[in-house]
Amino acid sequence: MRFYPLTENHLISIDPVELVELEKRTIRKEKLDDFSEELLRSSIYKWSIAIDKTMGKEMVLGLKLADKFKEPHEIYFNKEGLINEFVRLKTPEDITSFAQKYGLLGIKAPDIEQITSTYPVVQYLMRPSYIFTGYDFSVFEPIDLWIWHIKEVRQIFKLYNVVKKKSSDEQVNELIEIKIHKGRLEDHLYEDGDILNSFFVHWTSGEQILKLPQLLEEQSLLEIGRYTLIKMLESRLFGGVHEGGIYTIGIHSGNKAFKVRERKYAVSLLAAIYYDLWKKIVDDINIYFCGNIKCGLPFVKSGRQKYCSDACKQEAYRIRHKEKERKDK
Ligand SMILES: [Zn+2]
């Protein structure tokens, strides 16, 4: 497992990563090298099942650790700004260059027992928020997994932006909604189970986020949104951030003083990204939306920045320019 420093910058080594196009045939035939071969093969296999079952699509692109002839590189890892870089990744090429700089996200390949299980309870848990979120060393990650997390982070930014203010329930409802699930999960298994209605928070765009505790059922959607934001971030940080420390011996008023300084580490890149997001929210930052009408992505502003990236700045300029030309005609 790789440790990403969160409280101070230091040099870390990043394994080279490359984008691979996968077809069912090439997965089996591809020439892979020694120790990682089996690991890579089984990881690609498990992910292809998981992507099919959770998203109903074929896995086409993925990032894998490059072969042993490519040397790792070292970077001064600084979590500051990581979330901004992550949130604006759009194409597989953007994602690849980010991964080549920082490494793979560090998501555990799904358990084969879980993704092939026919038990109703296990099938019920067959959704990205369960399968895509375990931190671990990884050798392969589907591009769909990356895109899912990038979208999640964008949604979290938007949710934070809405619940930070005294938004109306209608405004919150543009992002999240409550759905009633009849019966309990176990009813599939035990026919004598009590039939209860449970309330679940969903993204308005579809996916389920969490089960609402009964205490909150009567609350406004704004309060529910605030609760959802915190719980989501807690669950993303869980198991991803570790405490550590170093000590120094200094001279204080003539005595040798033992002093401990706290350090924090993320066990994977994605945990470091979510930690950066968490810190930004704890620091009460404001979210801005990219001024390029074709983009509109949420981002954390630095200085007088109006656009999420230079590319968007240029695109917005071109759009304005065209608009002007059209009017002048
Ligand atoms: Zn933009």
Could you characterize what this model shows?
The protein is an alpha+beta fold and 329 residues long. Helices cover 41% and strands 22% of the residues. It contains twelve helices and 13 strands. The chain has helices at 24-29, 36-55, 82-87, 92-102, 112-116, 120-124, 128-131, 143-164, 169-173, 221-237, 269-282, 310-328; strands spanning 4-5, 10-14, 17-21, 61-65, 73-77, 140-142, 176-182, 197-203, 208-211, 241-252, 255-266, 287-289, 298-300. A hairpin with a 4-residue loop joins β8 (197-203) and β9 (208-211). Mean pLDDT is 87; it is low at 186-193. The structure holds zinc ion. Zinc ion is lined by residues 290, 292, 295, 297, 307-309, 312.
Distance between the termini: 61 Å
Over all CA atoms, what is the radius of gyration? Answer: 23 Å
Shape: globular
- Name the helicity range: 40-55%
Question: How much of the residues is beta strand, in percent?
Answer: 15-25%
* Biggest beta sheet summary: 3 strands, antiparallel
